[in-house]
Amino acid sequence: MPTLIKPGVLAKALNVTTNALRKRRIRDSDPYDFVIDSSTGRANYILEELPESVRTNVEKITKRGTNRSHEQAMKEDWKYANTLGKANARRIKIHEDEVAEKAKLQKEKEERHALMQKARRDPRRVERDYCYWTNAHEVSNYWDSIEDYERYKNKKNKKFTGYY
Question: What's this model's pTM, rounded to 2 decimal places?
């Protein structure tokens, strides 16, 4: 299917008005091929049928300009480099400084948090701190006193004490 372009784009490429193109179409003196849409009655020109010089002008007009990076514009465009480029460079530098400062604060905060966590933890425990040898053949006191144990072993002798 051929690529169609609007008369306004062709008129801009030829540096004429759309009215001039319309009059050419009416007089049948238009050197360029066009198609008329049957539903709307509008004319569109076939891009492939245009001469090479006109086609390149049309493509320049219809080509969407891409955004240049700041670095590329500073190298290529003298006007940008001496006007807007200076302000953009300053703004970019300020932004980079702010990002670096925030990163530094975040790193310090994380380091402080790690130190606080380390200080909160108990000193490193070893096995002998919570586990020790007991001899099953020997009686020894593993509670407050043997009398308390003997007295509270029996439920009748157990006294009720509240929590508070």
Answer: 0.42
As a whole number of Å, the end-to-end CA separation of the chain is 91
Strand partners, 46: 4
Instruction: Look at the block and give the residue holding tokens 């009720």.
Output: 160
Closest CA to 32 of 17, 7, 49: 49
Residue 71: phi and psi, rounded to 5, are: -65, -45
Output the CA–CA distances (angstroms, integers) from residue 115 to 36, 39, 62, 103, 144, in the order listed: 78, 76, 61, 18, 39
43-46 sheet: strands from edge to edge: 4-5, 43-46, 34-36
pLDDT digits (tens, 9 = 90+) for 39-84: 888 999 998 989 998 999 998 888 876 678 888 888 888 888 888 8
The 3-state secondary structure of the chain reads CCCEECHHHHHHHHCCCHHHHHHHHHHCCCCCCEEECCCCCCEEEEHHHCCHHHHHHHHHHHCCCCCCCHHHHHHHCHHHHHCHHHHHHHHHHHHHHHHHHHHHHHHHHHHHHHHHHHHHCCCCCCHHHHCCCCCCCCCCCCCCCHHHHHHHHCCCCCCCCCCC
